[in-house]
Structure formats: structure tokens, C-alpha cells
Amino acid sequence: MLDYKLLQALAAVVEEGGFERAARALGLSQSAVSQRIKLLESRVGAPVLLRAVPPAPTETGRKLLNHVQQVRLLERDLQRDVPMDSETDAAPRLRIALNADSLATWWADAVADLCEAQNLLLELLVDDQDVGLRRMRAGEVAGCVCATEQPVAGARSLSLGSMRYLAVASPAFMARHFAEGITPAALRRAPAIVFGPDDQLQHRFLAGCGFTERFPHHLCPSSEGFVRLIDSGLGWGLVPALQIRSELAAGRLQELLPGNQVEVPLYWHYWRNGGRLLEALTHQLARTVLH
């Protein structure tokens, strides 16, 4: 039989990013949290944490965290079905991983009504769409939005459609760097904007144009800041069409190569035994249409 106080300590260390923060969240001493982790490791016969900064779960730890996520959701269903004394009437909180561009465009409209109806709170962890599934594998989240279709063990995936990305720049930037057209020589000099080390959209766009060389680029890990830098003429970049409709209509941004775009498929991943709340969120997202 698993001791859920020990599992709670493991979840807190991973979710809070360290033993000290976990101790504060649980109302325990740091030593007590450490002892619970050691006892858990003794009982399962394997390490559950890599003592890194921040601590990361081992393969055994990930399996236990996946279990904790699902138990939390199922316990909420049980509390609704079976009257019981509760020390708190706090609203449920779901940890969800999603890419920054979804957060900046369609996500809020898709989930707002459900959050209001279910008194649901969200804790959103932002990851690039190509790597967000690692949060599910680590047992850190109840669901995630990412570009990978294949779900992890114990989970399902649902297609959300695809996000259309356009390569854009300001008119001044176009005149300064691409007056002679989008040539290989111009692309070697004109700086791009890249979200982060995992962002391959600009590379994918250029490869589709037959350009596979290195190119200068700024790094900007913010969807809103990304568009701001492009609008200010600091570089060109791939931006969701949903995000820049008004800028394109007003002529503040221009496409580098009209008709050349990158389609990024998105999938919603969720635990198979995640309870009614996660099921309701899944049904809500199934009605989302990306274009």
C-alpha cells in the first residue's frame, strides 16, 4: 500500500522546484520533507529524485508522479459523490503545459466558460510545442498541448487542428534587408527572431525555401515580446496568423513570401483515468477549431 503523505512530498518537491519551497507548501520542515523522500525511496527500493537544481524525478519517480496526478483528480470526483468533512473548499487547480503561442491566442477563449462553470483554477507551465510532452512523462501535469501525436503510457491524445504561422517583418525591415528580394545573401545578414533553443519554426520555413545555412537571430522567449520586436524592425520571424490579423490588415507587418507558411499540428494530451474534471476540459477543447 502506497503512503500518500510520502507521494505528496515527492509531488511538492518537483512542483515547487526544491525541498525548501516544498516544505513551505506542505507546512513542514525541510528535514521532514527530506525524510519522507528517503522513506519513499526505501519502500519502493529505488531513487525517486535526481538531486539536481531543480530536483528532477527518476523513471520510478515519474511513474509515481503520474499516479499522484490521477489520484488527485479522482479524489475530487469522490468528494462530490460521497459527502465528507473537508478542511477546505478550495477550488481545484489543474497543472497544464502548453506552448506560449497557444496561450497568447486561442487558449483563454477555449477554457474560460469551463473554468467559470467548474470553479476551476489553472496553473499553466509554458513549453515549446515540440517539447511540452516531457512534462507529462515527468508526471508534472494533468494535460498538455504539444505538437506530438503519440501519447505517453496511460494517456490519450486529441487532435486540435493546426496553427498557421506566417513569416513576417515590418515594412522598414523589408526595405532595409530585402529590397532585392528574399535571397540567400539577404537571409545570411538579416536577423531573425527565435523564441528559444527549441524553436525550429524559422529553420523549418527557411528549409522549405531551400535555405539551410546558419542565420543571425535574436532570442526572445515571449510571444507578445516576439511580435513587439518584429514590429519594431529588429528582425523577421514566424508568428501565428491568429495573433497578427490586425497588424497585417493595417500594413504594420508584411509577409516575406506570401503563400509560404508553416502549419504546426497541435494535440491535447490527457491522462486516461483523470476523472470527470479532466474529461470535461477535454470535451471543451474538442470544440476548439484552430485556423
TrEMBL record:
The keyword Lyase does not apply. Coiled coil: none annotated. The keyword DNA-binding applies. PROSITE patterns: HTH_LYSR. InterPro entries: ArgP, LTTR, LysR_HTH_N, LysR_subst-bd, WH-like_DNA-bd_sf, WH_DNA-bd_sf. Residues 2-58 form the HTH lysR-type domain. One of its GO terms (molecular function) is DNA binding. It comes from the Bacteria. Keywords: DNA-binding, Transcription, Transcription regulation. Belongs to the LysR transcriptional regulatory family. This is LysR family transcriptional regulator, chromosome initiation inhibitor. It comes from Halopseudomonas bauzanensis.
